[in-house]
């Protein structure tokens, strides 16, 4: 399964908060993955998630400015290899505080090199530091790739089900 060429990127990549100059590359990865280019969406997300410049590890910040929203990128130098977005949410759907993963994407030619794993672990570390011990996500039933990925990371079906109807 593992792609030895891409594995080099796992060794080289670093994970940090996304910044404005990363957004064109994030858009390119997302467009490659989903077939839809949504520039405004990504710019808005950056503003909402990373407008504060400090990461969770910044001990110079008082506890009151603890970070709960994370828009992270995995980089090799200036090249963005992938991104992940997540947030700590409390009491919605009757759930005690937990981390939610809203999106993940890895550049096509870098996949199966451990970048997805590194991104997820970086987000989970930040969730732990924010004080939660559970992480959740939602995925399309027929998306076998993303399902295999999350299963491989130890995630499994949880106690909630999703309901919807056409309006
Ligand atoms: C899912 C995704 C994030 C995985 O990223 P990645 O960097 O390739 O993942 P990793 O290399 O860390 O793989 C970790 C594990 O996931 C599983 N996995 C990854 N790719 C897989 C594939 N193509 N088939 C089956 N399992 C796979 C494997 O168990 C793998 O472990 P292994 O390499 O030891 O076998 C990436 O494929 C992707 O971006 N897919 C598109 C996502 C998308 O469409 N997002 C939009 C909706 S949120």
From TrEMBL:
What region holds the N-acetyltransferase domain? 13-167
Note the coiled coil stretches, chain numbering. none
Q: What would be one Pfam family of this protein?
A: Acetyltransf_1
Among the GO molecular function terms of this UniProt record, one is: acyltransferase activity, transferring groups other than amino-acyl groups
Q: What is this protein called?
A: N-acetyltransferase domain-containing protein
